Amino acid sequence: MRKLPKLKPLRPLKPLDRMQNMKTLRPLGKTKWVRAHWRYDYARHQWEWVLGHWAK
Fold first, then answer.
1. C-alpha R_g of the chain
2. 1-56 pLDDT, tens per residue?
3. Residue 53: exposed, middle, or buried by beta-carbon count in 10 A (0-12, 13-18, 19+)?
4. Are 25 and 46 in contact (CB under 8 A)?
5. Is 40 helix (H, G, I), strand (E, B) or coil?
6. Beta 46-50 vs 37-41: how paired, if at all?
7. Burial code of 29-48, b = ≥16 C-beta within 10 A, e = fewer?
8. Can you tell me the distance from the alpha carbon of 51 to that of 56, in angstroms, rounded to the nearest whole number?
9. Strand-pair partners of 46
């Protein structure tokens, strides 16, 4: 018998964007600047604002 996939609860509407933060100095090994954005936390069932950061 196969297990049914776990259904995640519906997310509420995403809030309006906040102001973007300034680019920081690029750390070694990082090449791409990711703008600030909203991320949904399924554990707390809330949107959280993630500041801009460097990624590979």
1. 16
2. 788 888 888 889 999 998 888 888 999 999 999 999 999 998 999 999 999 999 99
3. middle
4. no
5. strand
6. antiparallel
7. eeeeeeeeeeeeeeeeeeee
8. 16
9. 41
